[in-house]
Amino acid sequence: MQHQYSSSNGIKLSVIATVKNEVSTIASFVESLLNQSLKPDQLIIVDGNSNDGTQEILKSFEAQKKIRLLVRDCNIAEGRNIAIECAVNDYIAVTDAGCVVDINWLKEIAMAFEAEDNPDVVAGNFQFDCYNDFEEAVVLSTFNPERAQTEAAIYYPSSRSVAFKKYAWKKAKGYPEWLYAAEDTLFNIRLRQLNFKFVFAQKALVKWRPRETWKALAKQRFNFSRGNARVGVGTQGYVINIKYHGLILLFLLFSIDWPWMLIFSVYPLYRHIKNNLWSQAKKASQKSTRPHIFWKVLLVMEFVRLIGIAGFIRGRFDRFLNKQFIENQLQWMGVKTLDELDEKYRA
Predict the structure, then answer these.
(1) In whole angstroms, what separates CA 42 from the centre of its chain?
(2) Using one digit for the tens of pLDDT, what is the confidence trace for 123-173?
(3) Which helix (H) or strand (E) holds 203?
(4) Measured distance CA(170)–CA(322) in Å, rounded
(5) SS3 breakdown of the chain: % helix, strand, coil, rounded to 5?
(6) In this structure, what DSSP letter does residue 262 have?
(7) Largest CA distance in the chain
(8) Can you list the domains of the chain with their CATH numbers?
(9) What's the pLDDT band for 344 if we cut at 50, 70, 90?
């Protein structure tokens, strides 16, 4: 039997999560939280008005007094804020349905809070459960294989695996409810902007499955890029991609009337692959044992970048057409766009 861990400093953690239409995974998710080696002092789940049977499963857990269930018609940021507002403890751990939480996840988070550095934010870690070549290529294409050794692991945790002191959340004015996507990235940046101290808990693991189809991947990356563009996350990277692909497209269009112009598209394509794709694909091939993963990762990376350009352009149009995005960001964090912040705070 797993030894039950007790926080030496009496840290009490409220665990909060959001869910919508996860009937196939919700039971295993809740069980993974209930079976933690450090039991959560409070477990609050906000259901965004699921209609696939998820609510009924959650209500059975609530009837056993194992969770507190709140049903609201809301987005992810609103759901998290609702749950955190209801939390009774000073320490908040955040995850999401669709995951399986490692048995020692909460224990590792508590241990990080108890460290001498006295952090305000604990960035948890994550892994993916991949069932085929495509899913592994998606992971290796969209995440740096050496992420755990970079600053991104510390300062840009996924809100599927993060914890913070409640007063930090209050000072940051909560998750930005006016964003459908990129809300956790902006929340991380806001916490850094306020000079809260981050630490990385590498063993605080949460696992989930990556996107399983090209269509699902396209939808996810389009929404991510659209959300990023609305607030100015990663603008420089998107602009670089647009420049490369714009040149390639320009020469391809010229080649319709002047076929010899096709040769000029080769150079920007070569530079794009060399500067933006090759290094990560090479690292991916070293991390994986699957055959031909190098070329699969190159293909998925290029697909993601093309979708990202479309999402970025749409997000910029959103921002241009709806000035509320600018006003909300200015009110929430004091700048109209992340491009106005010091470079160290940008994603």
Answers:
(1) 24
(2) 999 999 899 999 999 999 998 878 888 888 999 999 999 999 999 999 999
(3) strand 198-208
(4) 27
(5) 55, 15, 30
(6) G
(7) 74
(8) 13-211 (3.90.550.10), 215-345 (no CATH)
(9) low
Asked whether 301 and 280 are in contact (CB, 8 A), the reply is yes
3-state secondary structure of 319: helix
The answer to whether residues 122 and 196 touch, using CB atoms and an 8 Å cutoff, is: no
In one-letter notation, the amino acid at residue 115 is A
Instruction: From 181, 186, 256, select the one nearest 219 (Cα to Cα).
Output: 181
User: Rounded distance, CA 101 to CA 35, Å?
Assistant: 9
Q: Tokens 């109209």 identify what position?
A: 336
Q: Are 141 and 217 in contact (CB under 8 A)?
A: no
Our CA dihedral for 113, 187, 222, 27, rounded to 10 degrees, sits at: 50
Angle between helices 235-257 and 214-231 (to 10 degrees): 120
User: Angle 214-231/293-321 helices, nearest 10 degrees?
Assistant: 40
| Cα separation, 281 vs 326, whole angstroms | 36
Is 135 in contact with 209 (CB distance < 8 Å)? Answer: yes
Amino acid at site 153: A
Contact between residue 47 and residue 70 where contact means Cβ atoms under 8 Å apart? yes
Provide the whole-model pTM.
Answer: 0.88
Containing 201, the helix (H) or strand (E) segment is strand 198-208
